[in-house]
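fyi for ur records
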Amino acid sequence: MAKSSKNTVSSPEGLKLLITVVNRVKSEYYADLIQSHGANIQCFVSAMGTSTQVLDLIGLSDDRKSAIFSLIKADKADELLEVLGERFKTIKNGKGIAFTVPLTSLIGVSVYKFLADKRESEMLL
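which gave:
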């Protein structure tokens, strides 16, 4: 960010809403992973996955899921999606889906600073 005067704010970095759906028992693991990549705010929502009757009969389906909504900086999105994709492949019972939605506008500098986890000294130009 370029610095010009003490009381001005530069163009904000883009933010994205990361939506991650995972097995409920793995939600804390994935929330910690996402937070380690700079997420400032996360919200968990209980969800149900689809299951088939055969899987239900033999006890292999656990359709309890968590949807994790996280706010991340746009420049971290590709890296984080790649990390999540790799973990979905390698963690036992850790499969899931993740995608981002760009946030195109926010009202107020204070709201942006909070959502982007910006400190006051980082915002001064």
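The chain has one domain: 15-114. thats all i got for now
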